[in-house]
Amino acid sequence: MECKAEMVTPLVTNPGHVCVTDTTLYFQPLNGYPTPVVQITLQDVRRIYKRRHGLMPLGLEVFCTEDDLCSDIYLKFYEPQDRDDLYFYIATYLEHHVAERSAESYTLQWQRGHLSNYQYLLHLNSLADRSCNDLSQYPVFPWVVSDYSSPELDLSNPGTFRDLSKPVGALNKERLERLLARYQEMPEPKFMYGSHYSSPGYVLFYLVRIAPEYMLCLQNGRFDNADRMFNSIAETWKNCLDGATDFKELIPEFYGDDISFLINSLKLDLGKRQGGQMVDDVKLPPWARSPEDFLRKSREALESSYVSEHLHEWIDLVFGYKQKGGDAVGAHNVFHPLTYEGGVDLNSMEDPDEKVAVLTQILEFGQTPKQLFATPHPRRITPRFKSGSQPSSCNASTADSPERRRLTRLPLDAVSPGEESFEDLTEESRTLAWSNITKLQLYEQHRIHKEAVTGIAVSCNGSSVFTTSQDSTLKMFSKESKMLQRSISFSNMALSSCLLLPGDGTVISSSWDNNVYFYSVAFGRRQDTLMGHDDAVSKICWLDSRLYSASWDSTVKVWSGVPPEMSAARRHQFDLLAELEHDVGVDTISLNAAGTLLVSGTREGTVTIWDLTTATMLHQIPCHSGTVCDTAFSPDSRHVLSTGEDGCLNVIDVQTGMLISSMTSDEPQRCFIWDGNSVLSGSQSGELLVWDLLGGRSTDRIRGHAGAVTCMWMNEQCSSVITGGEDRQITFWKLQY
C-alpha cells in the first residue's frame, strides 16, 4: 500500500509519502528532513495505536519498544480509510497481534500490583491518544503532592497530598465559587474553565530548558516574560491553586528519572525577574536535596499508599465517566466545548479560513483525552485491603467460622491482622502450590457412575469422597480402600450438585426434581427434603447455617435453619430468608469467603453480584453469549471470574461491576478454581487448562478426561485436586514439586 501522509513531530507536521511492503514501513518526507527515508522493519514493531489528531481519527503511532514513552514514528493521514488500511496491514503482519490492548486489560494488572501507578498512567495516556510527538495531546499526569514548603516530605500524612477527587480548578474553594457564579450566568455552550489542564503552551512551560526551539516557535521567536517562566515548583503549584486562569496538571517527566528539564544546562538567557535575579535552574522545595532527590521523592509520592488508594478518582476525571455530561458538571470538570472529541465537525465547515482558525484553536488550546471508561474506575488493591481469607475453594460450600463471619459484616471488609497470622503457613503453601500448578499429575481414575458426574464433596480428613451424577445417584467412595461404599438414590431425576456440612455428618444434594435432599452419613438414610423450587435446582452452597439454592425457576433462595450438625431424629423447619429474582433460569452460584456476597450466572449469559446483607443486586453484567458455566469470587472478594459456553473467561471488578479482563478459549471451560491470579479450568474436551490472568493467556494443558470436565474440588492446601467428567469418571490429581 502507498498513500500521502504527514509525519507528526512536536509543533511540526512534515508532508510526504508512506509505503508499506510485506517486511518494512517507509516514510519519505517531501523535503528530505530529518532523513530522505524513515524506515521501520515490521519485525521490530511491538505496539501500534490508532490516534486522534486535531480531534479527528487520522493518526497512527508505531512503537518498537514495550515501555518507551516516545514512539518510533507518528503518522497523520488525510483520510481515515488510509489510516485504517495501514493499521490493518501492520496488525495482520504482527505475529502475536500485539495491536491494540484495551484499557481494561491493564486495569487488572494495576489493581493487583503488577503495574506501578506510573506505568499504568503511561498506558492510559497512550490508549487515550496522548503522545510525546503531539504537544497538543502530550501525556498528562496529576499533581499528587500539595506540600512544597516543609523541610521533610511526610508521605504517611494524608495532608501532604492533593485531593485527587477534584480537578485542579476545584481545589481552591473561593476560586471555584467565582468560576461557578460565572458559569451560571454564561449562555450555552457553558464551560467552567477558560483554559485547559494540558496544552502545548503548558508542556513547553515545563520543558523550556530542554526544548527552547519549540518555545521560540510557539512564542514568535521570544521566550515568555521571565516572571511567567517555570521558575519554582512551589510558585507553580501556588499559581495552579490561586491563579484565575491556571488549571494545569503535570507531565510524566516529573515522575521519571531525567532531571534535565529542571536544570538550565544549555545556559539559556531566559531573562531577568522583577527582583533582579536571572532565570536559571528550577527552584526546588525544601524537602528536595537535589533535582535527583526531587524526582525520586515525587515518584515515591506517586507510588505511595495514599495515591494508590485515590488514583482511581483522578482517572475518573481525566479518562473516565466524570469527563463528560452530568457527572462532569457535578464534579466541576467542564472545559471549553472545542477541547472535546465531537465538539465541532471540521468536515462540515465550508469556509477554509474558519476551518484553519478552529483547527489552530483545537491544537493550541488543549484537548481532553479520549474517554476510556464509562463507569467508575476500580480502586487499587493496596496491602491494607488485602485479606488473608479462604482459598477460592474448594467446595464452593466449605464452611467458614462464625467468628470470621462476624469480622466481615461489610461486603468488602478485610480480615483482621490477628487472624491472618493464624493462616500464614497455609497461605504460603497455597502460594507455592499455585506457582507449581502446571505440575499437577493424574494418579487415579475410577468410573463409579453411569452418567456425567455433577458434584464432588470430600470429608475433612480426605478419606471419603461424595459425588452426584445425572444418573440420579449420590455415591460415597473410600479413597483409602478405593472401593465404592454407598450408592443412594432419592428419585429418578438427575442430581446437580452436592456439599458436605462441617462435621461430615450430612450430605446435601440438589436435584432436577426441584428438591434439595439431606442425607445422614451416620444413619445411612435420607433425613430431610426441602421442596423449595418450581423447577430443577442447579447448584447449592452453604455457609453459617444458611443454605443457598439456585434454580431454573429464575430464583436463588436463601434458607436459614440448616445447622452444621443436623439432627437425624427430627424434621427441620427451613425458613426462607430471601429470594433473589432473575429474568431467566440460574445455572450456577458462588459465595465469597465472608458470606456477604453472592454471584449468580444465568443461561442467557448474565452474571449478577448480590449483597447478601441487604439481599439487593449490586451489579448485573451481560458478559457471555450463552449459558454461564461457572462463577467464583477471588479469595479477597475483589473480583469475580466467570466462564461461559462462549469459551470466554471474564474478570469483573466487584466494587464497580466493570469487566476488566476477558480471555477467549477455543472451547467452553465448564468449571474452574482460581486464586485471584491463576486459574485451573476444566474444558469441554476433557483437558485441564492453566491460565495466567495477568498475562491474559493459557499457559498449560493437562490431559484428563475422555469427555467434558464437569466439576472440580481442591483441598485447602491446594495440593490435591479431584475432577468429575462426562466420561462418568472421578479423577484424583496430586501436585508433585
Characterise the protein shown here.
- WD repeats lie at residues 530-560, 579-620, 621-662, 702-737.
- Residues 379-410 are annotated as: Disordered.
- Residues 95-380 form the BEACH domain.
- Residues 387-400 have a biased composition (Polar residues).
- This is Protein FAN.
- This protein has 737 residues and is an alpha+beta fold.
- The chain has 3 domains: 2-100, PH-domain like; 119-365, Neurobeachin, Chain: A, domain 1 (Orthogonal Bundle); 428-565 and 572-735, YVTN repeat-like/Quinoprotein amine dehydrogenase (Methylamine Dehydrogenase, Chain H, 7 Propeller).
- 19% of the residues lie in helices and 30% in strands.
- It contains 14 helices and 35 strands.
- The strands form 8 sheets. Strands 4-3-2-1-7-6-5 form a 7-stranded antiparallel β-sheet, covered by helices on one side.
- β2 (12-20) and β3 form a beta hairpin.
- α2 packs antiparallel against α3 and α5 (200-207) runs antiparallel to α6.
- The longest helix has 14 residues, at 80-93.
- It is elongated.
- The two termini are 53 Å apart.
Describe how the helices and strands are arranged.
Elements: E1 2-9, E2 12-20, E3 24-29, E4 38-41, E5 47-53, E6 56-63, E7 73-77, H1 80-93, H2 103-111, H3 117-127, H4 173-185, H5 200-207, H6 212-218, H7 233-242, H8 291-302, H9 305-318, H10 325-330, H11 352-365, H12 402-407, H13 417-422, H14 424-435, E8 440-447, E9 453-458, E10 464-469, E11 473-478, E12 483-489, E13 495-500, E14 506-511, E15 515-520, E16 525-531, E17 537-543, E18 546-551, E19 555-560, E20 575-581, E21 586-591, E22 597-602, E23 606-611, E24 616-622, E25 628-633, E26 639-644, E27 648-653, E28 659-664, E29 669-674, E30 678-683, E31 688-692, E32 697-702, E33 709-714, E34 720-725, E35 729-735
Antiparallel strand pairs: 1-2, 1-7, 2-3, 3-4, 5-6, 6-7, 8-35, 9-10, 10-11, 11-12, 13-14, 14-15, 15-16, 17-18, 18-19, 19-20, 21-22, 22-23, 23-24, 25-26, 26-27, 27-28, 29-30, 30-31, 31-32, 33-34, 34-35
Helix pairs in contact: 2-3, 5-6
